[in-house]
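Dock adenosine-5'-triphosphate; give full complex structure.
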Amino acid sequence: MSELFVRTLREAPADAEVPSHQWLVRAGYIRRAAPGIYSWLPLGLKVLRKVEAIVREEMEAIGAQEVSFPALLPKEPYEASNRWTDYGDSIFRLKDRKGGDYLLGPTHEEMFTLLVKDLYSSYKDLPLSLYQVQTKYRDEARPRAGILRGREFIMKDAYSFDVDDAGLQASYQRHREAYIRIFDRLGFEYVIVQATSGAMGGSASEEFLAVLANGEDTYVRSPGGYAANVEAVTVPVPEALPYDDAPAAHVEDTPDSTTITTLVEAANRLHPKAEGEWTAADTLKNVLFMITPPGGESEALAVGLPGDREVDAKRLEAQIGEEVAIEPFTDEDFARHPELIKGYIGPGVLGSESKTKIKYLVDPRVVTGTRWVTGADAEGQHVFDLVCGRDFTPDGTIEVAEVRAGDPAPDGSGPLELARGIEMGHIFQLGRTYAEALGLKVLDQNGKLVTVTMGSYGVGVSRAVAAVAEYSCDDKGLAWPRQLAPFDVQLVAAGKDAALLEKAQQVAQELADRGIEVLFDDRKASPGVKFADAEILGMPTTVVLGKRLADGMAEVRDRATGEAVDVAVDDLVEHVVAAVRG
Ligand code: ATP
Ligand code: MG
């Protein structure tokens, strides 16, 4: 400890909102270099290397081969895949001295595709899995929580190459199983959920989420085993309803009813329902957005959904695309569309066939035959008994309504429960998107050129360090699981006399000789300072040699459980070796 490059800090950094971030900085594992950009100090680097080692072992075990690509990449491959534009503001673009365009790689599908295209040309070369553990760059809109969401971070990215769909299925399963082994070993609780594939395109995909209450992702699960990121949840589409007996739609006065609450109140007061009461679920709410794809033109979008549900911003983002700017309608936008009467917007002025030509997508629950109370496109008026499929026809459906606890799972497996987590890994079947864009073809058994089908598999390696820290830390500091701790044991010499230090030195050496990684606190600091630091630094076992050494006794503390046991000094090394080896 007297030589280790570490300083523990009394105060958490001002910008640290989550415990893992606070403790990793306070314990001297990482230091901020710029927003979302961190340096690794000796202790942090040891943890990072242990995570990497687990990831490498499991990737090698499925026959994936490690390569390493540069982070500084040419523009052209990313132009061919459209991601140079599609990534919008999220990539770091730069120019060389000759004015050539480059980027810092956010992920490497294009480069792997081209490498395999360069070297392979036959089905006999496949299947193939390649991976790297490499630094990625993304100019995240909201870098957060230290290394949990950085702008520079370390990812393990793997790619599989197969000649046909069955091959891709098998490769996907192999990687999935490797991921299960990786996450079982890392030491946090996780769930595997269905996911949307975002900017990657492609089809089937699953995420591995660390279960953490302050995670950014919301996921759902049902008693029958359905699990999905909330972004990927689909609404079970109800059957169309008969509407022969439905009265004709009628416009009614509903003064001062620009919100769902005031509308429901006015409807019940002025136009009572035949049976029961009007509720928010009887109303059709129309919400307007301005959508601007990277480098493209802004376009209005109207979303219709039952009035008792809000638009979920993350689900909307997942549907429209992460890099597309989505803004609610501003007063200027309304001014440009005089047909839209704020607070009274109805399907009458929406849809590609309407006057406004604004694209109109509705929640999947809005099926043919459903009847709605909705805006009449006139100040102070709503229309009642407006029947979908009779009185209006939306341009399509969109899955953006909030998902609520108790909603039915789409596969009929029961009511959904909501929880939060952080995405640690993402596996998906890319299919032929990249191979097609970049011309990766091989000759098949019949001598015919076929496009290769690919999978892509990511693990957030640096994020995993934060997730494990978040999962294991407490109010005293970090508390590493054994497999990731920088050292197995922190040995505290709690006292200053020469005999004590000499004995402690001897124990440290004996433990080291047995293959135990020991951090020996030999500083001339008070026992209190040393104990506090041992708690902050978080080695799983603390060995204390102090006053009771005179009676031949030492103390062994377990950082995670807080349990302390007295151990005879003569048995100490055996005891500690047994504790470490579990
Ligand atoms: P998120 O939804 O958290 O932004 P993503 O969908 O952008 O993640 P992928 O592109 O699938 O992530 O990247 C693979 C893995 O890399 C993720 O599962 C995550 O663990 C990690 N990762 C992604 N972005 C970051 C980041 N900004 N900082 C640290 N790790 C990240
Ligand atoms: Mg992201």
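Observed: Residues 489-581 form a domain with the Rossmann fold fold (CATH 3.40.50.800).
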